[in-house]
Amino acid sequence: MENGKIWRPFCGHDSLNLEEARTILLQEAVACPDAEREVEVMGNMYIVVLHSKESPTLKPIYWEAKPCPVLRGSWFEVISSERWLPLSQEEADLLEEAHTRKDWRERARADASLTDWANSNRSPDANNERRGAAPQKSQSQNTVVLNQVSCNGYEAVWTGENDIVKIKTDLTSKLLNKVGEKVGISQQYGATKLTRGYKEACLPTRTSPPIGHLVFVIHGIGQNMDASDIVKSTS
């Protein structure tokens, strides 16, 4: 849940169909700016409406209801092992652009290669010492920042090719981090892990169960008057 919204993932089959439809829509939007596509999801009970100029929405097929927003989850904030929050499309686009830049990735790989070369050329005693006990980093030792980008109210910091942290930049977080540094606490307050992609693989074999029966319920006075007929029809 985020800001009163509960985000639920589509199954793998629906996600792949939505991504394929989105790719086609982007191609069609070149010639037709108001292009639109519909994709049936969740056991063909709902439709996702994809529009080239608007955010996608989800609406039911067999009854009337207010459309729900649909978010293309490509970047997530990991609150816990079970709670992954999708970032907004604007944030995801910004992180994707920063993540796929070649300059810092090439530098990170060069640094990693240099470290591997140095370790392989150590003396036997040094290698044995390294295998026996890993060196501990001091709390005052700063982590090397390979890449960094400012988002809405936080900084996304890369300390490895796939190690990204979200650090809040509000006043409270800054003050608490300064206090933590003075007392020797290295962990950042308000820092959470960011990850590219969802925790579960998107497989086409993961589908929603097909519709077996449709039950139409009569509410109000009609429900009491036709109770026996409703039971007969649905039994």
TrEMBL record:
Coiled coil: none annotated. Transmembrane segments: none annotated. GO terms for cellular component: cytoplasm. Residues 116-126 have a biased composition (Polar residues). Residues 115-141 are annotated as: Disordered. InterPro entries: PA-PLA1. One of its GO terms (molecular function) is phospholipase activity. This is DDHD domain-containing protein.
